[in-house]
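User: Could you go from structure to sequence for me? I need the amino acid at each position, not a summary. Structure tokens:
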């Protein structure tokens, strides 16, 4: 198949078709199959972006590994960030569609992270959910005053958590 003169969108489509059909295919084999340079294939593959919604999980709670796995199974792009001290840097780097904050962050108050996001002209719009092992009105009030969009207490029901995340993400797209 000769791809000379083909635009990038069509070339990308052909590359993806080959990768889907043969997940172990090499860039060299793709280039040979499409009659283009290996460098062009490499450049096009590097330009691909993950279009899944990205969830940034911040914290070290005992349930966060299970939550990460559950959301990956739902086809979300999930990134785990353990520390809180450079949370804004993590948000800047990862550009998430949603931040899940674990209130058990050791090095910073997770509600302060939410306040920092809300006061930032670059990140104020990113929805924030709090995952907490602490319930009660005092914690809920503190969370909502800091600007969180939702607050979920442990034990987490996975079906409810997925539904809440979906609702918050839908609301953010409006």
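Assistant: Here is the amino acid at each position, in order:
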């Amino acid at each position: 198949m000769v791809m000379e003169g083909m635009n990038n969108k069509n070339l990308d489509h052909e590359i993806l078709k080959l990768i889907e059909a043969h997940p172990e295919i090499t860039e060299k084999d793709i280039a040979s199959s499409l009659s283009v340079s290996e460098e062009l294939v490499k450049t096009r593959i590097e330009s691909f972006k993950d279009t899944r919604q990205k969830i940034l999980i911040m914290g070290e709670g005992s349930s966060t590994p299970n939550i990460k796995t559950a959301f990956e199974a739902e086809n979300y792009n999930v990134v785990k960030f353990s520390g809180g001290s450079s949370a804004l840097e993590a948000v800047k780097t990862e550009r998430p569609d949603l931040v899940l904050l674990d209130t058990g962050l050791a090095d910073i108050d997770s509600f302060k992270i939410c306040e920092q996001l809300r006061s930032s002209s670059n990140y104020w719009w990113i929805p924030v959910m709090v995952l907490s092992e602490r319930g009660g009105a005092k914690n809920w009030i503190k969370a909502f005053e800091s600007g969180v969009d939702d607050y979920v207490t442990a034990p987490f029901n996975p079906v409810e958590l997925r539904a809440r995340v979906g609702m918050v993400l839908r609301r953010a797209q409006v």
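One structural detail worth keeping in mind: The chain has a mean pLDDT of 84.
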